Automatic annotation (TrEMBL):
Biased composition (Basic residues): 1-10
Protein's recorded name: Class F sortase
Organism of this sequence: Micromonospora antibiotica
NCBIfam families in UniProt: class_F_sortase
InterPro entries: Sortase, Sortase_dom-sf, Sortase_F
Transmembrane segments: 99-117
Positions of the UniProt region annotated as Disordered: 1-23
Hydrolase found in the keyword field: yes
Annotated keywords: Hydrolase, Membrane, Transmembrane, Transmembrane helix
Record bears the keyword Hydrolase: yes
Pfam families: Sortase (PF04203)
Length: 296
């Protein structure tokens, strides 16, 4: 009878098989984790897209229109805003969210990575505006929860006036206080409330057919002047003036006025410059830039 030859098991074979099994299980866990990360990235991308569209709409509408002001003869009307551009154009429009989602996910991954670098090294490597709201607020100024403004006071101008809410007019421009409420200011309720991150916008008339209106003296403000805004929650947000600018109504720098979300800001806007009548009224807008310094 032929002798049966038995193969000797290779040394370490069981350990190799066990290691392979562990590797397979680890790979499966990685695939599941990658799936969860991808799902979170898609949800984050959808949220970011909604936020981006909203802010693009607000900035595009926000003072492409003018603050209406009247003289004894002609009632000025808001200037229509520039038509809104699609969020994603060209040959990628309408082809689904694949490329935009991947791009946004890549940006989010980069931001998270850079924040980790900042946390470890203590060095600031990302611009404040780019990641506003992701870092904890600096200690040199407060950040308040949302609450609509009810009153504005500027001691330099001996001004104290009620504030009510205004939205978007039927033509797509910012609505302004009615002429019968020319001694009141209007807070643009599609933006932040005073004290939240971003630029809270308060508009008002410069004059009417009967004389000066609520924001007649804005052009007299200087750097360092204080503006106090009382809110519905009874907190008072105190802002200091950074600068006062005048722009032609057709050349408003919307990014500069509405794009700073690095800290709580305030924008006061009225008409200015020379009277041209017709649909434009005054040729320019006066814009006061102010930042939050404290609250009580």
């Amino acid at each position: 009878m032929a002798r049966t030859r038995h193969r000797r098991p290779r040394p370490g074979g069981n350990r190799i098989r066990a290691a392979a099994q562990r590797t397979g299980r680890a790979a499966a866990r990685c695939r599941r984790a990658a799936g969860r990360v991808a799902a979170r990235a898609r949800r984050t991308a959808r949220r970011l897209r909604r936020v981006t569209v909203r802010f693009r709409r607000v900035a595009g509408q926000a003072f492409s229109a003018s603050v209406t002001t009247a003289d004894p003869v002609t009632q000025a009307r808001p200037v229509r805003p520039v038509p809104r551009q699609p969020a994603f154009g060209g040959r990628f429009a309408g082809t689904g969210p694949g490329l935009p989602v991947l791009a946004i996910a890549a940006v989010m991954l980069l931001i998270v990575t850079m924040l980790g670098v900042e946390r470890v090294t203590g060095l600031s490597v990302l611009p404040d505006r780019f990641i506003a709201g992701l870092r904890p607020p600096p200690k040199k100024f407060p950040v308040l929860s949302g609450s609509p403004p009810t009153q504005i006071a500027i001691s330099r101008l001996d001004l104290r006036a009620p504030v009510h809410q205004v939205g978007i007019a039927p033509d797509g421009s910012i609505a302004v206080p009615d002429a019968t409420r020319a001694q009141e200011a209007g807070w643009y309720d599609q933006g932040p409330t005073p004290g939240q991150y971003g630029p809270a916008v308060i508009v008002g008339h410069v004059d009417t057919t009967t004389g000066p209106a609520v924001f007649h003296g804005l052009k007299e403000l200087r750097d360092g002047d204080e503006i106090e805004v009382t809110r519905a929650d009874r907190q008072v947000a105190v802002f200091t003036v950074d600068e006062v600018q005048r722009y032609g109504k057709e050349r408003l720098p919307t990014d500069q006025i509405f794009g700073d979300f690095s800290r709580p800001n305030l924008r006061l806007i009225t008409c200015g410059g020379r009277w041209v009548g017709g649909a434009t009224g005054y040729a320019d807008n006066v814009v006061v830039y102010a930042t939050l310094v404290r609250a009580h």
